[in-house]
Amino acid sequence: MNKALILVVEDDRPIRNLIITTLKTHDYKYLAAENGSSAILEASSHHPDIVLLDLGLPDMEGVEVIKKIRTWSNMPIIVISARSEDTDKIEALDAGADDYITKPFSVEELLARIRVTQRRLAITQTGEQPETSVFTNGELKIDYSAGCAYLKDEELHLTPIEYKLLCLLSRNVGKVLTHTYITQQIWGRCSENDIASLRVFMATLRKKLEREKNGMQYIQTHIGIGYRMINKSHFAG
To answer: Which range of residues forms the domain containing residue 89?
Structure first.
């Protein structure tokens, strides 16, 4: 896998240096910015593959940086912030962030999130269309063209909503999807009733995917925020 060009947006020098040292040690190319204005300039000038973004910047909120970048690019943005409140995470994810790491973080966690993002980026750049592909993730297989899903080569009997949820999560494998985003994609709206319905459907979907008590887990719940499909493998063309 080719090493990505990563833009590090962090005004705290020790943390910025830690991230840069980590990237250099693992042969990643990098750019650095200390504020939001510089981040937007670097992103528009150099088109990095991934942005690592702090929310508390001296000149503007990191969420504003996300919104500005999203007006012209879908480059993956991983937020790294000391803000651990669900509301902050939801705001950043709904603005267009792909992932959220809370400080303090481990170097291993940061590298793992970067690798997941790279894999998703590689899939996107191949130009493969999920509707004509077979998605595989561990023992899970989804044949988009046939509209069928299988676990250990045994067909899953899913309701239409469960299947739509499974496809939505698989097309965003490794990415946290908020309740708002999911309900808007599935039902075209978001209300308290929709979120309550989502929880019910997700619970039934998980039971069908994770039948064995100590078996493979596919869906990770981010309490108060949303859901993520855990990346266990890759697309098969």
So the answer is: 5-125
